[in-house]
Amino acid sequence: xxxxxxxxxxxxxxxxxxxxxxxxxxxxxxxxxxxxxxxxxxxxxxxxxxxxxxxxxxxxxxxxxxxxxxxxxxxxxxxxxxxxxxxxxxxxxxxxxxxxxxxxxxxxxxxxxxxxxxxxxxxxxxxxxxxxxxxxxxxxxxxxxxxxxxxxxxxxxxxxxxxxxxxxxxxxxxxxxxxxxxxxxxxxxxxxxxxxxxxxxxxxxxxxxxxxxxxxxxxxxxxxxxxxxxxxxxxxxxxxxxxxxxxxxxxxxxxx
Length: 256
Hints:
This protein has helices at residues 2-10, 17-21, 65-68, 86-95, 127-142, 148-161, 166-176, 189-207, 236-255, and strands spanning 29-35, 38-41, 52-57, 71-75, 79-81, 84-85, 114-115, 118-119. It is an alpha+beta fold. It has a 4-stranded antiparallel beta sheet. The chain has a two-stranded antiparallel ribbon with strand order 5-6. A two-stranded antiparallel ribbon has the order 7-8. β7 and β8 form a beta hairpin.
């Protein structure tokens, strides 16, 4: 589950914690495809094996929903090594591992522990737990504490520093549900998915290691007085290094 939580923040443009916390199987996390601008669920597809995962959030399920309305986003099936991909682990969690905790709800991520006299296993996770899962992964594999909100800022900063196109920057704003002057409050479902495709393509290229490699000589990462990584002062090479470290952390989590 830790791997999946991390992947939802790094395999696609990072959303707010609320968007991940409220994911529900068959409701906001669904399988299917688009045909002629209309969503076709997996149950109605001629070839169910060709189904893609999508995140569909209603206006009341994310912070800026009142402005932008219902949101659709594609979940890319990024490769994770050892012949496995994002979808392999997502399906396994939904159909096998998650059921061990006997949840009585459809929320994707559940608590996996008990404490004292109260049984928490199977309850929906909250945003504090998700926040800690992400920070813990970075602390373990990258030796620095990076919360989800900082990932969002780092991602946008990196896009600007590598010269992302206007289409990619606009797509990033749409995918991450934050304000941009060129955005509009409502698009039909197919337009939303098409609008996000440039940033999804770019992000998959970064995850696949097709971006430039870090410079050979790296300086120490800058930190704030509070001990957080000061992402605003990171150089291009340091940002690329962080992305590579994150990719390696995902692969190491898979291996373990």
